[in-house]
């Protein structure tokens, strides 16, 4: 029989993403609503190892729903990858009477959590928080929608200057292994080409497409490039290659970088975080464990962590087709 | 046998919404891609009646994806509700060799389109463009996501001053018949109470809830009120009533009004508009008619206009529960 | 001889304005830099009366420079208008060993501060923080630039929908006694007419101007109305009057309200707050008193509170002429 | 005697900046108001050389006041640096009956204009439009205020993630020869250090300052680096150097790049552009020439182009002191 959950821990781990504070708030408020205690561990797994935590009540999380970053801070912990590290963490959790942990983060976080739960019999529930949207079992991760809007806002600005100068811009966006950000922000920003890790268009196709664009009367162009694009060149090499082969283009590069992780979360991300985390608390109270909550077809669902970790979500290839059509 | 579509008309009608320009762009670009002609009618049905249209090619819609409003303008036409009005429109469409119409708007637009199609054998395809999200057959209408973000951006600002002054604010948002905007922006903005047309909480419950909030240590509160809330008082009367009954509250009112219709569309709305409108053109070319395209469970789907008009989408009542939990 | 200042108090009072947190931060950091102590009184004068204050060190004000509102909260205190109220405040200040007070607020705040300083021999230094820009002795008050941008952002959105529908919009902005916000945001937003308290254009002129606009080919118009405009009608009556006399206009009203007080401060307001408050601390340490710091011609200057309170800054009438020229 | 001005040309040249459209609009509207004709040359001097221009009336510039970029486009023209190029331009201007030119741009633009005016007896009037604020004779150039806000908006986002991860960020901003952007955005963003071309702090001082920051309890830090900083290392080398010497810091780099040139102009920039350009037209009509309009101490003033070109504005060194105090 599962023991009654009286105290829940929450932490944020891995790369931070907008909406993590809305998620923390929802965990804390749901605990307050169901009259269980809540503690927040600082700096992800490291705070569990160090026993670094704070008591959280409904009022502790006021006025944070709209803030970027995470008030619990985040980190990647090497020590947690060791058995000893995880033992220290377990000892601190027991000392602190924490009956279950809610882990907000990406797949690295969930992998650590799964191992920890198996070794130390402490239930964990995962909440997908990452801008990359690369978690199986949810159509949307917390922070992804905000990151998309940060990107298109930046590209709108770049387009102002691109079209004032008849220029070609290469804009690198985040997404080392997954093209979600590039693909959707590329369509949203009206990019002429989108290069993603999942699809190698090849350099020839890129040149052809840019030439076609120009012949069709376009005077400026934007190419969105995912960090991990498969074309085998980084964004600066890419721009140099194009400049060499299409000398009439004044090609420029912008690497958007870490602005994509920050900013006030969108309504979508705040509602997503709220819904997922209320459910996470309810499932924890219900004695469930080793699962991840996700949003599938507008409904909150739970999936076993193991399943979530075994697969990768796939991009919608139809969006590449849409992008082609719209950049005609 | 359906005749081959060689020329497609597009218009925007009813209340304008952010993303309509992205939608127009997608129609025009998809036409260019499939090498059919495209014309845009000005001011919705009125432009059809008056024969007021412009030729549109791929370059006509450059740099509009990020603009609020609609470059084709919009209006509500009384004349189109008359048989004579619709006859004039049909005559102009035939004169202009328009083989099919794509109508971007809400249910008033679709109703007019359905009637027109039946009377004059001109295929129409509807695209849901309205901030209200009150169209059956799509989980999201174009403009809704942007409106939500406009609302939470405004409420975040109001919360700055509310919490600096320990005040209670009533914020009226759009949604005469549907509480979608109020409900989702209310959760996103962290509102203490949300009043919507679909649910009459009653004045007593509101007072109780505000008192409970205060006793729990909250020093400021936000109440989101849908235009069409069922409590039987407008937002000013509501504030007066609360002031009278809870005199320690310094209650203020803000009516957000038409800022909710404008602004640069979010990435979500741009991608939504792009996907729906490419599909609308493809369906038109395929000879289909009297349907509306929509986004259901992340997939573009078509539904008969008749069906779309017969029902109303329902709000997710679970969100009211989430809101209650989070405002603890 | 003035006694050495070892402990400085700071508070925010009156209507809150964006940049007040940047101002508080600058006071606190300047105190830390000069190695004097700093305490913050909550809720303006009320916190002085109640002895409600917190110790502030350099780290207390981290990550607040970008936040709207005021972490010290603000209020208007009736009790401080009484001799007894001010005596309580003086007693608490002495108890707390506060040697000088920095008051961030508007003229109401300064008037209270001046009286208090005269009665109780506690030096006060004023910092102009209000969105209204109606303080003599400074070209800019903290929060004014942010409020202007909030207004034009809102009016840009309204213009989207106004020009999509060929509409006339009346937009009421803050400024009961001074037209600074209306005049500058009106020019910035490209308004067709601007109504301010300092100038009564008369209703006839407004009608003539709107008719001329329409004849010149304008299809939509924005009129910015200051709360305290002198035309003798409120914004709703104004719209009704115009509708009646110029029936071809579909006149709408938006009252921007309290969103104008919130939001993340602009760079201008953050730099202004930083410069003024460092100076305020330095002047306090220098033994000065009963003065206000201000920005005149890009230089920080001090002016006697008495002088600042005796006059009102005047709007630049040339801007009305500019507005006329640009709305041609 | 100067001949009467009946037709004015306008162009934008050099790097584009937000507010150039507001400037164009003000030129066009002022011409309409004074009933003189106006033509716009495309792509700066190149359009003059090529005779590429459009007629502009009051309605041509509707709804552009809020757009980034420049509808007349911009370029740097090599051909205009040749005598032949300028002769072609003069011929086209005479053909087009242009009596005076208003040049919106930076010092490169003004230098070209001055030469051209001397050689061909066509009056030119300069309007300072550049984000760099590096023009003598005006306290503010058009676009500078917007660029500052773009920078602090980006740095606010970076700070979210910096403080979530206890990181050190180097953020490179524009300003090859002038530290205006770095200095003011650095104060506005609450940066710990600001590196500008005008002042070589030296690497030792930077390391000391960062160490001191850390010892004082700061867990994250932002260093703003001007493109043209004098420390002799680019921003990536700088980060590497710090990482090597202060290994506890996880130093990251973000190069903001061209987003700083785009975006909807702030109210400040719109009003500035409006005031300067109305004046520019009025001075042209008054027969003046070879001058630049600028904003000095909140008043529009004219200065001889020669004078404007001979000097460089200097940064306010007191701001470096303020920055030091505030990063305590």
TrEMBL record, chains A, B, C, D:
Residues engaged in binding Mg(2+): 107
Q: Which cofactor does it need?
A: Mg(2+)
Keywords assigned = Allosteric enzyme, ATP-binding, Cytoplasm, Glycolysis, Kinase, Magnesium, Metal-binding, Nucleotide-binding, Transferase
Q: What is its main location?
A: cytoplasm
Instruction: Tell me the InterPro entries matching this sequence.
Output: ATP_PFK, ATP_PFK_prok-type, PFKA_ATP_prok, Phosphofructokinase_CS, Phosphofructokinase_dom, PKF_sf
Active site residues of this protein: 132
Identify one Gene Ontology CC term for this UniProt entry. Answer: 6-phosphofructokinase complex
Which pathway features in its UniProt record? Carbohydrate degradation; glycolysis; D-glyceraldehyde 3-phosphate and glycerone phosphate from D-glucose: step 3/4
Coiled coil (UniProt feature): none
* Residue sites binding substrate per the record: 130-132, 167, 174-176, 227, 252, 258-261
Subunit comment = Homotetramer.
Quote the protein name from its UniProt record: ATP-dependent 6-phosphofructokinase
This protein's species is Salegentibacter salarius
